[in-house]
Design brief:
Length: about 400
């Protein structure tokens, strides 16, 4: 979290923000250890274990980041200069102790800064391409759905232990609760121009004491997804001081910019992953009439961003002669995509996942599975199906 509201401006893009975990009543806290000692520097917080967050990155200009691919670091736009060639940044990866000699250090070659940063649209994100891929280090997937934009989040960084303090040698971690947009906006004049679609707020509103601060800018805010895997939902952006009551941290809302980040990664050639949204599932049985009219089962995709050119469709159909069946996927705009033709396959049931190539379809909306039995003598039903976009 940065110290003044002017940090929204690109003018101060070189300034950074850091992790602070201090108790609400710090006067009663035990003394912290010396700056270069291995003990925790921050009362009420926890030192991250080696390998706990392996995708965390420390950048030489004093920001954090996360490995988006094995050659691209996702960070904040205000941490970097303009888009273009850049060989001045060093990324440190693979350690919690910045003085650990086993750290991997790689120079940058190029920076892509969000073209919407500093505008009313928001977009405090950037990608840094490294000179060489970093092997053996997991990446941190980003969310493409707003479904994960609430709850309790984890933040981590090497930032200052107190507002205005020195940055630290050891990686710290803490949990921060979601603060809704309206509550955040109404927290004070600093937050009056919060960009609802582009920014998330988190922090201890009543007591303060847990926050990000100078030195943590660009680092990830993350949580567990439905599969209990880490997923990034925010990027440390700015805030009114550090760990103050009624002054939450403000984070870039990653779900809003997921498609733009993926597109930029693809242009950089850094092996960018294709973000997905879902799965969205319908478990209601639908009978399939013997040699009858087609039936449909629908799911509604919500909270996704942008469009997609592919869909994964998991289909579970109970039927005594699957060769009788024709299966199509219907997009929200009515476009139809064939998943399966009829044939001579006499086997029972369908329990498979089809990969469908779709024509830049908007993710959000109602998708339908259409099934028709085109031959006589066998019957069945749609047991369940799901779509991941």
């Amino acid at each position: 979290m940065l110290l003044t509201k002017i940090l929204r401006s690109a003018v101060l893009s070189a300034m950074t923000a850091a992790l602070v975990i201090v108790p609400a009543h710090s006067a009663s806290a035990a003394p912290t250890s010396a700056q270069d000692e291995p003990g925790p520097r921050v009362v009420g917080g926890t030192r991250a274990l080696q390998g706990e967050f392996p995708w965390m990155v420390r950048l030489s200009m004093g920001c954090g980041g996360a490995m988006y691919t094995n050659q691209l670091v996702l960070t904040a736009a205000h941490c970097v200069g303009s888009t273009g060639n850049n060989t001045t940044i060093t990324a440190t990866v693979g350690v919690v102790d910045l003085q650990d000699t086993s750290a991997t250090k790689v120079k940058s070659t190029y920076v892509h800064r969000s073209p919407t940063y500093g505008t009313s649209t928001g977009g405090d994100w950037a990608l840094i391409k490294l000179a060489t891929p970093i092997t053996g280090v997991p990446t941190l997937p980003i969310t493409t759905t707003t479904a994960y934009d609430t709850g309790t989040f984890t933040v981590a960084g090497w930032g200052a232990a107190t507002e205005g303090g020195a940055q630290q040698r050891y990686l710290l971690k803490a949990n921060v609760p979601y603060v809704d947009d309206v509550t955040c906006r109404d927290a004070g004049s600093y937050y009056s121009d919060l960009i609802f679609p582009a920014e998330l707020c988190a922090g201890q509103m009543a007591t303060g004491g847990v926050d990000t601060c100078q030195g943590d800018s660009g680092g990830p805010m993350f949580r567990r997804d439905n599969a209990n895997a880490w997923i990034q939902v925010g990027i440390v952006s700015h805030g009114d001081g550090c760990a103050r009551p009624s002054a939450p941290g403000v984070y870039t809302q990653v779900s809003t910019f997921a498609s733009a980040i993926a597109a930029a990664a693809a242009n950089l050639g850094g092996g960018g992953p294709t973000p997905t949204c879902g799965p969205f599932t319908n478990n209601t049985d639908v009978s399939i009439p013997d040699r009858g009219a087609a039936v449909t089962s629908s799911v509604t995709a919500t909270g996704c961003t942008g469009s997609t050119s592919s869909a994964q469709v998991a289909v579970n159909i109970v039927h005594t002669y699957r060769g009788d069946l024709v299966i199509d996927l219907l997009a929200p705009d009515g476009s139809s995509y064939r998943l399966k033709n009829s044939g001579s396959d006499s086997g029972d049931n369908i329990n498979t996942t089809y990969s469908a190539t779709v024509s830049n379809e908007t993710r959000n909306g109602t998708w339908r599975l259409k099934v028709q039995d085109v031959a006589s003598a066998d019957v069945g039903y749609i047991n369940s199906w799901s779509i991941t976009l």
